[in-house]
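Running this now, will post back.
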Amino acid sequence: MKSHPRGLNDAAWIVSGYLLAYTVAMTFMGRLSDIIGRRKVFLLALVIFAIGSYWVAIADDWPTQMALRICYQFRVYPDPPRVALVMLILGRVIQAFGGGAMVPVGMALAGDLYRQPNEPNRWG
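Update: finished.
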């Protein structure tokens, strides 16, 4: 008997995966923007977010087919709806990593642009 996604138990990872990647990205991307530059990190985060959004939109198409082909090569025969759900969750994780990176970098950019008049310029 095939196992199909069981509603909230399986779909909870769509939200949990997003929150996990979002939180992880927020913790170190601000510091990375201090090191290599805010613009570079913000644009990189935007590209990662766009790739994740694209992946989510097409998760049940070629990503699922590609994952199934890889599984079949190793003689593993998973349930296609479950693989589609995993591809959706993977897309949401990629999307969240980009979105989570934009938050601290955007706040740091705002702080750089709107500093107090008497505050010295810390960035050169």
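Residues 80-113 form the longest helix (34 residues). More later if anyone needs it.
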